Amino acid sequence: MLKSINQLKIGALLSYMQMALSIIISLVYTPLMIRTLGQSEYGLYNTVSSTISMLSLLSLGFGSGYIRYYSIYKKEENNEKIYKLNGLFLIIFTIIGLIGLVCGLWLSNNLHFVFDKGLTVEEYSIARVLMLLLTVNLALSFPMSVFSNIISANERYIFLKLLGMLKTVGGPLVTIPILLMGYGSIALVAVTLAISVVTDILYFIYVIFILKNRFIFHGFEKGLFRNLFIYTSFIAINLVVDQINWNIDKLFLGRFQGTVSVAIYSVAYTIYQCCMTFSTAISGVFAPRIHRIVNETIGNTSKRRLQLTNLFVKVGRIQFLLLGLIVSGIIFFGKPFIYFWAGEGYSEAYYVALLLIIPATIALIQNIGVEIQRAEDKHQFRSIAYLVMACINLILTFFLCQKYGALGAAFGTAISLIVANGIVMNFYYHKKCDIDIVLFWKNIIRLSIGLIPPIVFGVIIIKFINLYIIWKLVVFICLYIVVYCISMWCIGMNKYERNLIQKPITAIFRRRYDKNS
To answer: How far apart are the C-alpha atoms of 218 and 230, rounded to whole Å?
Structure first.
């Protein structure tokens, strides 16, 4: 038990370290890509990547089912069932990988299906090679994802996060010199493929030789695949929704507006991903704990509601503390930041970023609720609600992007996010998912009072300071962070949140004092 708790705590810490590295690298790496590839090839690279990402739908959400059934078999202490589960999943994902390979090869030879006639002969040639390399990467990722799922289910977060950090840092460190030498997007994708293969091999070695897991490919439990398919079918709908919300925009823009509009949207989306990274870094490590709470409180609704609500509120407040700084900072400093970061020709990306980030914040501070629904097997409603809103988003984006470009595509996404996350899902959490959502929002509103001083300070800055001088931009961002932190510490944060900061600092000083004495 103690080992599990240490893995959880260290895993959460490493998640934030990986998050910080990811954001820092993105801030350095993305503008370098934009400037070395050029706006057109950068847009081409993102369009092809989004197209291949659509094929991830083939997983049908089966990966989420592994932790659920592993938790059940682990509670029963039935290793044979776990090994058969390993074998079943490896068979399923190998078949999916082969289907993905066939689909990707077909797209590589039918690029007009994606780009219509919007590319030059040279761009078509580059797109075809990119599509082939990304197809191979995708096809391999399906069966190899089984090994990362096994590691996660065993709560070996230290290894998982350390390897994730290595991948986060290693990719750009290798590709940056290649880009500077004049090689384009093809070399970039080739390096990505190579690093993914190395990472997958390490996952395999860890599962087989450290965890000593086995794979049994026969004698599967009767009805397991059927039950698994029923459980994950609604998760598959969520995957469709995510692809519509975050990738279809780029495909429509590439087809109707060209690669330049895709580049603008991609810059905004990169900023959105940084925000998303902050919110998902900690919530991801709580999946096994949520499943354990649900399994251990069967028949005790009041205890389950108390435990899940406390976890939902605790994690949501921490996510809001982080996202409040990021989102308000983007509102006040985003426009000059994008000017210096991405370069000229991307001013529209600021407004696209706001349309993506602000509505998404509701879901980002509540994303632990997704795992709660899955653990309680109540994710069906969310899937259907999101699918309806994604279809509305699809229709709006189809028409709006043709007239208003990247802004139109983002507006369609914003409407679906506000209705689905802000209204529908909060009602469902409260009524059906053993979460006191009223208590959650009372906490968020109480925490939001701490935003008042930094917002006032931000308004004064944009009214009286010219932030298009880089040293002024840096100085006032730093000042804004200081004002935000002081305000939240004095007004917004509770005792538990202050202790999260105070205890590690106190421990460090105590160790130094003990050494000196």
So the answer is: 21
